[in-house]
Amino acid sequence: MRYAHTVDTVRGAEGELMARLPDGALMRRAATGLARVCARVLPRVYGSRVVLLVGGGDNGGDALYAGSQLASRGAAVRALLVGSRVHEGGLSALRSAGGRAVEVPRTTEIPAGSEAATEMAAADLIVDGLVGIGGTGGLRGPHASLAALAGATETPTVAVDLPSGIEADTGAVEGTAVRADVTVTFGTHKPGLLVSPGAEHAGVVELVDIGLAGELPTARLESPQAGDVDVSLPRPGPESTKYRRGVLGMAVGSDRYRGAAVLAAGGALRGGVGMLRYAGHDAVATEVLRHWPEVVVSVLDPEDPLAGLPERVDAWVVGPGRGVDGDAETELEAILGSPLPVLLDADAVTLLGTRPRLVRDREAPTLLTPHAAEMARLLPDTSPREIEARRLEYATRTAEEYGCVVLLKGSTTVIAEPGRPALADPNGTSLLATAGTGDVLSGLVGSLLSGGLAPREAAMCGAYLHGLAARLAHDGGPISASDLIGALPSAIRALRTE
Ligand SMILES: NC(=O)C1=CN([C@@H]2O[C@H](COP(=O)(O)OP(=O)(O)OC[C@H]3O[C@@H](n4cnc5c(N)ncnc54)[C@H](OP(=O)(O)O)[C@@H]3O)[C@@H](O)[C@H]2O)[C@@H](O)CC1
Ligand SMILES: Nc1ncnc2c1ncn2[C@@H]1O[C@H](COP(=O)(O)OP(=O)(O)O)[C@@H](O)[C@H]1O
Ligand SMILES: [K+]
C-alpha cells in the first residue's frame, strides 16, 4: 500500500520530529534524497547543466541544497530565484559549492526568448522548487510563467515534494502547473500525487524516507499495490463449492441494451464467481446464455417484474442498461430491501438520485459505482466538471451523504467509505475510456462481493484488476470491453509477478 497524508498532518508530524532533531536535519535528509534521484535522472552529473526553479519557501530551500550537492559533484548549477525572499542557508550552500543564482524579474510574464527560458531549454535537468506543501491556490505571477516555460521545453524535470501548482490535499489544478517526469516526495505521499489531474503532473513518484513514518497517524488516502490485491482476492480452495465461492444475482441489461448484460456477465465469470444467476426478459436472457452457457438464467415476465427474481444469491449487481422506468424502479427497491450486499451502477445510480432514501436508510452493505455525470445526479447543484476536478473530495462527500461505499470511475478511480481512508487506484489507463468497460467492472466487482469481500475491498480489487487487464490486453492498438474480459484471468495471474 502507498499511504498519503494531508498537509496539516504532515506539518504536525514534522513538528514532533523536528523537536527531537538538530536544526535543519529534516531538510538535509530531504535534499540528499532529492540530489540522489537527480543524479540518477542525469546521464552523468559531472559537466551537466542543471537549472533550479527556486521559490521563497523551504521547497526552494530543498532545491538549493540539492543543487549544492550536484554542484560539488561537478554539475553547472544555476538557480532562478522568483520568491519575494529566498532560503538563505540553501543559497549560501549553493554559492559555496560553485553554483550561481540569478534573480528573475518579478513580472507576471517572463517572455519565451528571455535568458531564463533559454537556460531551461538548454539544461540537462530542471528542478522544480517553486512551491511545495506551502502552496495556496493556483500558481501566481512569475511562478506560473516559469512553470509554463519549463513545460514548453523537452528538458527532464524533477519536482521537489510535488509539482508546483497542484493542490497537495486534493490533486486539483487551477491554471498552470509544472509537469514533472519524476516527483521526489518527502516522508509520505500527498493525496494530490495519487489522484488526477494532479497525478498526471507527477510522473514517477519516488518517496524519500526522512524518518516521519513513526509520527504519522492513519492515512487520508491509500493506493493499493499488486500484493494488497493478491492477499485480498478470494481464491478457490479444496473445500470450495460453487455455492461457497459465491452466487451473484444480476439485474443488468434489457431487451434494448443486451450488450450490457453480456459484458457484466463476462466480468463476473472471469472474476471468479461461483455461480451467476442472471434475471432479465426473454430476448436479453437468451443473448446472455448464447454468450455464456454457464449462466443460470431466470426469464422475467414483463407483466410481473418481481415474480422471477432469483432468491438464493449472496450479492446483487443492479443497473447497467436496465432502464429507469417504473419496473426498473420497483425492481431496484425490492433488491435494496434485501439484507444482501448490493452494487448499484449506471441506471440504478440515476434512479437513486430521485430516491436517495433507498440507500440512506439501508443497513446492508451498498456500493455505488458512478462516473462523474452519474455522481452529479446524486449531488444536487454539482456539475460533472467540478467532480472531475476534485474527485477525492466528491467521492468522499457522496459516501458520507449516502452512508455507503462509493467507487467514482474515470481518470483516477477513487473509492470512499465513511470513516476509512479513501483509495486511489494506481492502474487507471485511458485505454478503458470506451463503451462497455464499466459494465465489465460492475460484474467483476459483483463477483468479489458475492465471494465475501467487503464493498471497499471488492471495489479496490476490481478496479485494480480492471486497469491491469486493460494494460495486458493492449498490444499497441485500441482495446474493447470484450478484450478486457478475456484478459481478466491473466491479470489475476499477473498479481503474483507484478
Ligand atoms: N514538511 C516536512 O516534513 C518537510 C518539508 N520540507 C520542504 O518544505 C516544503 C514546505 O515549505 P514551506 O512551508 O516553506 O512552503 P513552500 O511549499 O515552499 O511554499 C511557500 C512559498 O511559496 C509561495 N507561494 C505559495 N503559494 C503560491 C502560489 N500559488 N503562487 C506563487 N507562490 C506561492 C509563498 O509565497 P508568499 O505567499 O509567502 O508570497 C512562499 O514563498 C515542503 O514542500 C518540502 O519541500 C523538507 O525540506 C523537509 C521536510
Ligand atoms: N480517461 C480514463 N482514464 C482511466 N480510466 C478511464 C478513463 N475513462 C474511463 N475510464 C474507466 O472506464 C470505465 C468506464 O465506465 P463507464 O463510464 O461506466 O462506461 P460504460 O457505461 O460504457 O460501461 C470505468 O472503469 C472508468 O474508470
Ligand atoms: K515543487
UniProtKB/TrEMBL annotation:
GO terms for molecular function: ADP-dependent NAD(P)H-hydrate dehydratase activity; ATP binding; metal ion binding; NAD(P)HX epimerase activity. Keywords: ATP-binding, Isomerase, Lyase, Metal-binding, Multifunctional enzyme, NAD, NADP, Nucleotide-binding, Potassium. It holds the Pfam family YjeF_N. PROSITE patterns: YJEF_C_2 (PS01050), YJEF_C_3 (PS51383), YJEF_N (PS51385). Its cofactor is K(+); Mg(2+). It comes from the Bacteria. Binds 1 potassium ion per subunit. The keyword DNA damage does not apply. (6S)-NADPHX binds at residues 58-62, 132-138, 161, 260, 321, 371, 439. InterPro entries: Carbohydrate_kinase_pred_CS (IPR017953), CARKD (IPR000631), Nnr (IPR030677), Ribokinase-like (IPR029056), YjeF_N_dom (IPR004443), YjeF_N_dom_sf (IPR036652). Residues 10-218 form the YjeF N-terminal domain. Its EC number is 4.2.1.136, 5.1.99.6. K(+) binds at residues 59, 128, 164. The keyword GTP-binding does not apply. Belongs to the NnrE/AIBP family. Catalyzes the dehydration of the S-form of NAD(P)HX at the expense of ADP, which is converted to AMP. Together with NAD(P)HX epimerase, which catalyzes the epimerization of the S- and R-forms, the enzyme allows the repair of both epimers of NAD(P)HX, a damaged form of NAD(P)H that is a result of enzymatic or heat-dependent hydration. Bifunctional enzyme that catalyzes the epimerization of the S- and R-forms of NAD(P)HX and the dehydration of the S-form of NAD(P)HX at the expense of ADP, which is converted to AMP. This allows the repair of both epimers of NAD(P)HX, a damaged form of NAD(P)H that is a result of enzymatic or heat-dependent hydration. Homotetramer. This is Bifunctional NAD(P)H-hydrate repair enzyme.
